Amino acid sequence: MNIHEYQAKQILDDFGVPTPHAEVASTAAEAKEIAARIGRRVVVKAQVHAGGRGKVGGVKLVNTPEEAEQVAASLLGSRLVTNQTGANGVPVEKVMIAEALDIKDELYISIVIDGDIGAPVLMASTEGGMEIEEVAEYSPEKIFRVAGDPLIGLTTYHARDIALALEVPAGALRATTKLITDLYRVFIENDCSLVEINPLVITQDDQIIALDAKINLEDDALFRHPELAKLRDSNQLDPLEQRADKADLAYVKLEGGRVGCMVNGAGLAMATMDIANAAGAPPANFLDIGGSADQGQIEEAFKIIMADDDVEMILVNLFAGIARSDVVAEGIVAAAKETNATLPIVVAMRGTNAEKGIKILAGSGLNITGAPDLAGATVAIKQKLQEMGGSN
Ligand code: GDP
Ligand code: MN
Prior knowledge:
The protein has about 400 residues and is α+β, with helices and mostly antiparallel strands. It folds into three domains: about 20-100, Dna Ligase, domain 1 (2-Layer Sandwich); about 105-230, ATP-grasp fold, B domain (D-amino Acid Aminotransferase, Chain A, domain 1); about 240-385, Succinyl-CoA synthetase domains (Rossmann fold). The chain is built from 13 helices and 18 strands. The strands form four sheets. Strands 7, 8, 9, 10, 11 and 12 form a six-stranded antiparallel beta sheet that branches. Strands 13-15-14-16-17-18 form a six-stranded mixed beta sheet, sandwiched between helices. It has a four-stranded antiparallel beta sheet with strand order 1-6-2-3, covered by helices on one side. α12 (about 355-360) links the parallel β17 and β18. α2 (about 30-40) packs antiparallel against α3 (about 65-75), α5 (about 155-165) packs across α6 (about 175-190) and α11 (about 325-340) packs parallel to α12. The radius of gyration is 25 Å and the shape is elongated. Guanosine-5'-diphosphate binds next to β2, β3, β7 and β10.
């Protein structure tokens, strides 16, 4: 789960990581008040679930409370499009007003789980700021990595090594070592999947401060943190993702595709997307119905896929174990009838009650082709593409 910068900053504050003084506002008038209270140059920052704000006017330095008010007025109620959002952008419902810092140097530090070694890994670089993606791509040697030990944690000498690699001024070495240790505790104790501070700054007077804060929380551990679960802001999701979220389904939009994919399980989703691509029909999305969806959820899943404007054809690939093919088939037929779906639907079903499921689809009178397996589904997709005149 993604959270906002002002929420991540609160967590950092609680763990003793230094951040700029800041408050959050929902109206331009509040923004002005806060800026006046801070009483010096401030930065107005759009609160959205995406980075890359600085490059598109989502982060602005201003000199007076009146300017803060103006910038807040233009951001609030707008949608911010950054290189990390889709073309629709994300709504700006809050802005954070932070005291502006005099920056000497912008550094980078993040913590993620490295699946290969099964441990959290810290990444740090002297090249922080808005071009970190380019650093990762063109000069990866400038990114320093250290793994934490799941049992021992992050030792002080590791934290000190990272601080040294960041080439902080001698006077800031102690504070940086402490900050790194505290950041690691933030990651572990909140069950994060990502903690990223970009930039971590050295100020003109050699203070080390987390200027930006991005935290992702591990969904599967949220039950252990009811207070963090409350930070969810589903308004930041696109409308179809919101619908899927409510129905307990996992929906992922993919750019540039034309086939909607309904599957059960993430591994099957990957295989299905490969097959769709191989058949010349790139996926526009995939929706994972999981193992135990009921007919109502299947109907909603189907409607969500249909509501995606890019979808010209639907591929259902089901490997029924706990899920039952006949229930899925009933759900598809009900949703297709209700929405007057005319676009072609190719369904591959195996496992529990597969024959029954295929019979239900075949008898539905809808534009549905049942296939016994994925090879059959590929043939059916190619055939449909030809009928649609969009074959390549
Ligand atoms: P992002 O673009 O969404 O990652 O937003 P950031 O919070 O990282 O801000 C983007 C950039 O704005 C930073 O890399 C800084 O260069 C600049 N910036 C943000 N806050 C301040 C500040 O208080 N003082 C100065 N001088 N620059 C700032
Ligand atoms: Mn940033």
